[in-house]
Design brief:
529 residues; alpha+beta; FAD/NAD(P)-binding domain; Glucose Oxidase, domain 3; 6-stranded antiparallel β-sheet; 23% helix
């Protein structure tokens, strides 16, 4: 019996378990279905794609996507300590002020920008030091990238030539503009939440971590969560939780666990022989960031040539060089229409020629890729059960690009990428096209979008605040059960979702511990003109 059982040691679970363990009088168990994060390839930034479709990845595949001609998309998720923070591209991006103020405007008190900024800063150890916008001394190392490929630099210059303002901080006063991304790295190596929060110097003896332990359902008695059922070493057993069960299994698997436990739409549950307990829209409201990849061939060597003995030695000796690359080194946040109040497109700049899908053959030759990404999709998908067996992967359909507004923004994003690609900074490098629309017409671009859309791996929303959990992340109708991960986000932030998930977990830990929230951030004083 433990005080707290935390299910899922990913971007949120590691944070929650470590923070709860700061109270010496409580016992905490953190469980994860995957293995420890000891494999060296996890910590080599440029090798992130080597981690996909292997033992560290759940390897989900979507159902046929209706607006993408029935394509089934690969959806990697971390199955290892650190979860997807051990597989991701390590970009430290928080989203836009409007995202969090939008949550507060939905009636979710305590989730506005000034409420959440102190928790972003609490987590952060930014090598640039402490400021109004950034923290220093937190567990999560945030640094400037140590690989600045000349293709990425040329893409920044070309974007500036196309009229996009240059910024040195997408998490500062304004998110908009083009520049280098900061990354969650320490000394040029990946800084996952497992490395940041589960180190021996941070964890007390009151926190136990069990790997290779697969949660099958939440145990509920008299409408109260009392533990979890797990499969470990081929044996099904129960683990008790005296205070709370906290699900941190992510936007695909937290809803799956709730559904398997009888929490969700009653008719769907009864169809699988599951007795309904609480009628909630679990698994609905799924959102993600779709990306379209435009590829040019270029003179010189891309990141595809990074794995040389000299670069390996530089990485091992100094933690520097192209092997520290996150593959996407720079980018921009832009509004494609003047009437928008916040960006609708994020441009990812890859100094390598990417294939058309994660299953596609590699592109022959060197090149660069610009990936316009839809930031605030109106399309909504769902996670549903395939059957009542916990080890069966759920059905996942995102319904990407099912609304006209989403299609319009992504068409405009592709047009902007074409404009950037035509500018002198890139045209002098270019030796041909690898994957571009046939023309700049809306019809040809839309056809290209349908063929080249894939996910940038940011699923959220399936246990949303307001609908499934309250503003303190407690599941409606069941005592002692919370969900703490990206699934509780009611709308998707405008940007990469790892940093917002860590912030959310930091804030949730204070809620669970009964602590008052950190004081709201006060806007910096503006000097008189």
């Amino acid at each position: 019996m433990y005080d707290y059982v935390v299910v899922g040691a990913g971007s949120a679970g590691c944070v929650v378990a470590a923070r709860l363990g700061e109270d010496p009088g409580v016992s905490v168990l953190l469980i994860d279905a995957g293995p420890p994060d000891s494999a060296p390839e996890i910590h080599l930034p440029v090798g992130l794609e080597q981690l996909w479709q292997g033992r560290f990845d759940w390897g989900f595949i979507s159902e046929p996507e209706p607006a993408l001609g029935g394509a089934r998309l690969y959806l990697p998720r971390g199955r290892v300590l650190g979860g997807s923070s051990s597989l991701n591209a390590m970009l430290y991006v928080r989203g836009n002020r409007a995202d969090y103020d939008g949550w507060a405007a939905m009636g979710l008190r305590g989730w506005g920008y000034e409420d959440t900024l102190p928790y972003f800063k609490k987590a952060e150890d930014n090598e640039r030091g402490e400021s109004y916008y950034h923290g220093a001394g937190g567990p999560l190392s945030v640094s400037d990238g140590r690989s600045k490929h000349r293709y990425a630099a040329a893409m920044i210059e070309a974007a500036a030539q196309a009229g996009i303002a240059v910024t040195d901080d997408h998490n500062g006063p304004s998110q908009e503009g083009v520049g280098w991304f900061q990354v969650t790295q320490r000394d040029g190596r990946r800084c996952s939440t497992a490395l940041a929060y589960l180190s021996p110097e941070r964890l007390g003896e009151n926190v136990e971590v069990l790997t290779d332990t697969f949660a099958t359902r939440v145990l509920i008695e008299r409408e109260r969560a009392v533990g979890v059922e797990v499969l470990r070493e081929h044996t099904l057993t129960s683990i008790g939780a005296q205070r709370e069960v906290i699900l941190c299994a992510g936007a695909y698997q937290s809803p799956q666990l709730l559904l398997l436990s009888g929490i969700g739409p009653p008719d769907e549950l009864r169809a699988f022989g599951i007795e309904p307990r609480v009628d909630l829209p679990v698994g609905r409201n799924l959102q993600d960031h779709p990306v379209v990849t435009l590829v040019w061939l270029a003179e010189g060597e891309s990141l595809a040539a990074a794995m040389t003995p000299e670069n390996v030695e530089l990485f091992e000796r100094e933690g520097r060089g192209p092997l520290t690359s996150t593959v996407v080194e720079a980018g921009a946040f832009v509004r494609t229409r003047s009437e928008l109040t916040a960006p609708d497109i994020q441009l990812h700049f890859f100094p390598v020629a990417l294939p058309g899908s994660h299953f596609g053959p590699p592109v022959e030759g060197h090149g660069y890729t610009i990936g316009p990404t839809l930031l605030q999709p109106r399309s909504r998908g769902a996670v549903t059960l395939r059957n009542a067996l916990a080890h069966t992967k759920p059905r996942i359909v995102h319904n990407y690009l099912s609304t006209e507004e989403d299609r319009r923004s992504l068409i405009d994003g592709v047009l902007l990428a074409l404009e950037i690609g035509s500018r002198p900074a890139l045209s002098q490098l270019r030796r041909g096209a690898s994957a571009l629309p046939r023309s700049a017409s809306d019809a040809d671009i839309l056809e290209f979008v349908k063929q080249r859309t894939q996910t940038i791996f940011h699923p959220v929303g399936t246990c949303a605040m307001g609908a499934v959990v309250d503003a303190e992340l407690r599941v409606h109708g069941i005592d002692a059960l919370r969900v703490v991960d990206a699934s509780v986000m009611p709308t998707i932030p405008r940007g990469n979702t790892n940093a917002p998930t860590i912030m959310l977990a930091e804030k949730a830990a204070d809620m669970i511990r009964g602590r008052p929230p950190l004081p709201r951030a006060q806007p910096p004083a503006v000097a008189a003109a």
